[in-house]
Amino acid sequence: PCSTEMFSYLLFLTCITVSQAENPSHDSCKKPSISWDALSMDKLVMNIDSYELCAKTCKNTNKQYYENNCNYFTWNDGNHQYFRNSCALFKSPGDEQECKNCMSGAASCFCASPFACQDTGDNVAFVHTDTESWSKCEYHCNLNFGCSSFTWFTEDHPYRHLCILYKECSHSEVDTTCSGCCSGVRSKKSPCSQSQYKELSSAHRSVHAEGGKNRDRSYIRDVGGVNSADWRAMVWYRFIGEAGNKMAEQFPGWDNCGTTWPGYLAVDNDSNKYNDYKLSLPTQEEGEKEMTVCFARESERDKCYYIENVMVMNC
């Protein structure tokens, strides 16, 4: 890819104060005197003498069969009229019903940190919508340079599948009454950390360099092409030194940047109105963002003859 000079960001081709409790309280997950239509019950397990053991039975069912066979459960206590100390398992529950001597819950609520961080006015880094799992929310946090903690809302919460990234979240700032809230902390270094990316520093990458036969590929498609010396396949890269400090955002000219097919980011500016692949650069708060690289081919007189989707971060 071609490079220019301005603010620095990363390209990907292909103080933490909240911790997970050793024995977290799941009181917020309890739904007393509520169950579901018995016709939707998948299994009734006897000799379950506590709510916590019933929740564990539900989660262990999923581990045993490697799929979500139990999403909800009802524990019937020792005073139940018909089946004492039993655990009803539901994959897809029917209508809610009142019950005596019973207590229900959702398997998704039983996470390692069943609470929510709270907005203190300046500690929210970013909010992701339509985040399908806790692990995906953790992934977003790991890729956001400003994130130290996060809260994910489960399927049963009114804010379901929202993922809120926080700059900080102390124990005095958490909501322990939130049912369907699961929090966590950054588990990996940001790709913006120096040890997490490779450097692209070759002078031939500059928009001021003439053409050549360099390629950034795991294999060479064109006869006579050679891989660039600073290319290390599918990892995070940062432009530095004689290569400049960011990828070009405009067509650099034919037969340029040390190659015959120069590549550049298709950003939303006036110079790129000839193609449909226009996106703005990410902010630091967004973390990673998918963008499009256009490769120009002079023989076709096409400034965006070939495209590759890449991930970009603003560091």
What does this structure look like?
There is one protein chain. The protein is elongated and about 85 Å long. The strands form 6 sheets. It has a 6-stranded mixed beta sheet with strand order 14-17-2-21-20-19, with no helix packed on it. The chain has a 5-stranded antiparallel beta sheet with strand order 3-7-5-6-4, covered by helices on one side. It is mainly beta and 315 residues long. Helices cover 8% and strands 32% of the residues. A hairpin with a 4-residue loop joins β20 and β21.
Which terms would index this structure?
21 strands, 315 residues, 6-stranded mixed sheet, mainly beta
Which stretches of 5+ consecutive residues score pLDDT under 50?
A: 13-22
Widest β-sheet, arrangement of strands: 14-17-2-21-20-19
Rough shape? Answer: elongated
Q: C-alpha Rg, in Å?
A: 26 Å
Task: Tell me the span between the first and last alpha carbons.
Answer: 19 Å
| Mean pLDDT metric | 83
Name the quaternary structure: single chain
Topology order in helix (H) and strand (E) letters: EEEEHEEEEEHEEEEEEEEEEEE
Determine the fraction of residues in helical runs and give it as a percent range: under 10%
Total E-strand runs? 21
The helix tally amounts to 2
Alpha-beta classification: mainly beta
Taken as a percent bin, the fraction of beta residues is 25-35%
Biggest sheet details: 6 strands, mixed
